[in-house]
Amino acid sequence: MSTLPPLAGQVALITGASRGIGLAIARRLGEMGAQLAICGREAHALEHAREALRRAGYETLAVPADVTRRAEVDTLVKRTNEALGEIEMLVNNAGVGVFAPLHELREEDWDRVMDTNLKGVYLCSRAVAPQMIRRRRGHIINIASLAGKNAFAGGGVYCASKWGLLGLTRCLAEDLRGHGIRVSAICPGTVATEFSPHAGKDPQKMLQPEDVAHAVEMLLTQAPQSFISEVELRPTQKP
Predict the structure, then answer these.
(1) Sequential pLDDT tens for the chain (239 residues)
(2) Domain of 71: which CATH number?
(3) Which of 10, 148, 152, 211 is the most exposed place for a label (fewest CB within 10 A)?
(4) Max CA pair span of the chain
(5) Does residue 154 form part of some domain?
(6) Interacting residues of 61 by C-beta distance below 8 A, sequence separation 6+
(7) Own/partner pairs for 39-48, CB < 8 Å, 24+ apart?
(8) What does the alpha-carbon distance between residue 115 and residue 122 come to, in Å, rounded to a whole number?
(9) Sign of the C-alpha dihedral, residues 46, 210, 36, 88?
């Protein structure tokens, strides 16, 4: 039996990986032997993440990029291909949230959430799909949310973006499954990160970024004949 790690030599691109869930996913894929490319909008935070991964033994390409801008996404994919090779795993993790009653929400906040959480996934997936189709294999994993299934006050634009992301994921999966490419969504509940305030909740009872990374690992190591299209992830105890 091979002693190589399960993702040895494979190239993984993780968006929104300068902190939190994205960084935990990058670390887990590094442990599994993947060659890592990470992106984020803040160059300083991204470099800090790259150094943390490097110290852990995972050489990493870090490319500052705003996933809402096509030219920056194209540059991100081009630099990854040139430095590491063609992308076999794309984890669309970049996301933002603004929480307010819809009648009080600013138009620019609506656009920012929708552009990041939906358009960014479209641009990144469109950029990598042709090389996956050519190789007849690949994984696209979208980090969605249980907010894409459950409504709550003040969550109008965030819920709408994640509801849309689940629809996009399912349609993209149908577009690509005939080419040997699996497209899946992970829907976590509340995760203990700096993403949004969690007033009154016990962070020790919340999901941790590593729990989402574990779900990504599960999807990437499933048997070749199976296709897990969606994972719902909840803490064992309500925080």
Answers:
(1) 567 899 999 999 999 999 999 999 999 999 999 999 999 999 999 999 999 999 999 999 999 999 999 999 999 999 999 999 999 999 999 999 999 999 999 999 999 999 999 999 999 999 999 999 999 999 999 999 999 999 999 999 999 999 999 999 999 999 999 999 999 999 999 999 876 556 667 888 899 999 999 999 999 999 989 999 999 999 998 87
(2) 3.40.50.720
(3) 152
(4) 60
(5) yes
(6) 36, 37, 38, 79, 80, 83, 84
(7) 39/13, 39/14, 39/15, 39/63, 39/64, 39/65, 39/67, 39/76, 39/94, 40/15, 40/16, 40/64, 40/65, 40/94, 41/65, 41/66, 42/18, 45/18, 45/19, 46/17, 46/18, 48/18
(8) 10
(9) negative
Known catalytic residues are 158
Domain containing residue 80: 11-233
